[in-house]
Design a protein that fits this description.
Aminopeptidase; Rossmann fold; globular; alpha/beta; 19 strands
Length: about 500
């Protein structure tokens, strides 16, 4: 029987569609790992869902946890996971979900309340685990930062679309304006007026959801622009649209994470008080030009920000690279894999995982240099720091391999990788020397198996490495055609 997840969120012209977008991205990732997903939403949101999802949807308003319970049409009588993405709920609401859910997941931005959950996800740039001190149970996983950005799979799969067009802008830049799907504050009208007051942009594309609160006003402004602007509603293919533009102006919300993932240079304008911390995180990462609160900006400031970005290829390159470094597009896969696999060490302590980063170079090199690691390495030569740094930069720039750091209580304990080969991916595993024998390796492989969602994996192990052979065999390698175990031969080489 398929495992079942319940997702509770709201959507409306006043609330916006951000909560729905990230929950549906997570639902897609869970379903690719064998879950069946059902939905509990406010009445207005029902019509926002597609027909297949609507058939698995019930209405739950406010604090009514009873309305979230499994219904006769739901598979099973108990949820394997309950995902809650709604402000204003207290830990009592989450506690009331426990009789019919094995674990509770909160998607959050604010870190301003008690949450009786097993996992909390806050993907804002700059978000840190300590924000949830005394707010979630000690044993809860705290998944913070853009490594856990809940984006649809098409952003992960189309990261290369924008790369070749960042350097040169022929003529005036094309500008994408996206200040929220429903934009209840009508920031779009103010920004569009400022943009059109200048002469330093070419085509201006405005994006809104159909039925946005102020769509008619925006539509009138576009019609009055004499062809300088166009309005697109309910865009189905945002990656391609982003790739067709030179620059973007948006709010520091989920759509900013999408643009960062694709490497689209962007200007961020805060349109709500709760966006300030997100904007600060983008600015600290150098991944966007954050120019402040909308009501504090003049037309000249907005026009000058566009001009500066349009005229500086170096600035565009820096923003694009920093954005892609910040958001790899695998956040939904990562969160879904942790929910599905529940990796723990032998003592039952939960493990988390994040992407390998450039600042992991020294840690990774230290593990690689350890005698126990080098003993069974294909290449016995110890890399220099310069060689290792160059290798890591090439790996992260190419973005074709999966590289994950597994952590316990926030401390890295393993690195597991999956490198493309003709018939799938080859797996590499390095466990922190001081944590060997604690079940870390097996748990890391369990997590990778879930992250890769059934893709064929191959492990190549030295014939004398009894511990590694046992670890891979315990994880199912050698038992099926999708999990191959190959004994290393002298002809094997490692790049």
């Amino acid at each position: 029987m398929a495992r079942t997840a319940m997702l509770r969120f709201d959507a409306s012209p006043a609330v916006g569609g951000g909560h729905m977008a990230r929950c549906l991205a997570l639902a897609d990732a869970l379903e690719s790992r064998g879950f069946s997903c059902v939905y509990r939403v406010n009445a207005e949101a029902v019509g926002w869902l597609d027909e297949p999802r609507r058939a698995r949807t019930g209405v739950a308003e406010g604090q009514d946890a009873a309305a979230c319970a499994p219904s006769p049409r739901d598979a099973g009588v108990r949820f394997d996971a309950a995902v809650v993405d709604r402000y204003g709920l207290c830990d009592g609401f989450e506690q009331s979900l426990r009789p019919f859910s094995s674990r509770i997941v909160a998607i959050d931005d604010l870190a301003d309340r008690l949450m009786n959950v097993d996992i909390v996800v806050n993907s804002a740039p700059g978000a840190q685990p300590h924000l949830y001190d005394n707010r979630v149970p000690d044993a809860a996983l705290r998944l913070t930062g853009p490594d856990y950005a809940l984006l649809r799979a098409e952003f992960r799969d189309n990261k290369s679309l924008k790369l070749e067009s960042v350097d040169a802008i022929p003529g005036k830049p094309s500008l994408l304006v996206s200040l929220g799907a429903t934009d209840p504050a009508d920031a779009t009208s103010a920004v569009l007026a400022a943009v059109l007051a200048g002469t330093n942009v070419g085509t201006v594309t405005v994006v809104l959801a159909r039925g946005a609160a102020h769509a008619s006003k925006v539509r009138a402004a576009v019609q009055a622009s004499q062809g300088r602007a166009r309005l697109l509603e309910n865009v189905a293919d945002m990656p391609t649209l982003c790739a067709s533009h030179d620059l973007a102006i948006g709010a520091p919300a989920t759509s900013a994470l999408e643009r960062a993932c694709l490497g689209l240079p962007q200007i961020l304008i805060e349109t709500a008080v709760n966006q300030h911390a997100v904007a600060a995180g983008f600015a600290a990462a150098g991944a966007a030009n954050c120019i402040g609160r909308l009501e504090q900006l003049t037309t000249a400031v907005i026009i000058n920000a566009i001009r500066d970005l349009a005229q500086s290829a170096d600035l565009r390159r820096r923003l694009a690279r920093a954005g892609r470094d910040l958001v790899d597009g695998r956040g939904a896969d990562r969160v879904a894999a942790l929910i599905a696999a529940e990796p723990t060490d032998k003592a039952g302590r939960r493990l988390s995982a994040r992407r390998l980063r450039r600042d992991d170079a020294a840690l990774m090199l230290a593990w690689q240099r350890h005698p126990a690691t080098r003993r069974f390495a294909r290449n016995p030569a110890i890399p220099t720091p310069q060689e290792h740094r160059a290798w890591l930069d090439r790996r992260l720039d190419a973005d074709v391999a999966v590289s994950e750091v597994v952590a316990r209580d926030g401390t890295p304990v393993a690195i597991v990788r999956a490198d493309p080969i003709p018939d799938g991916h080859e797996v590499s595993l390095v466990v922190a020397p001081e944590t060997r024998g604690q079940g870390i390796g097996a748990a890391a492989l369990q997590y990778l198996d879930s992250l890769m969602a059934g893709r064929p994996l191959t492990a190549v192990v030295h014939p004398d490495n009894a511990a590694s052979l046992a670890t891979f065999r315990s994880a199912g390698y050698g038992a099926s055609l999708s999990r191959l175990l190959r004994i290393e031969t002298p002809a094997d080489t490692r790049t």
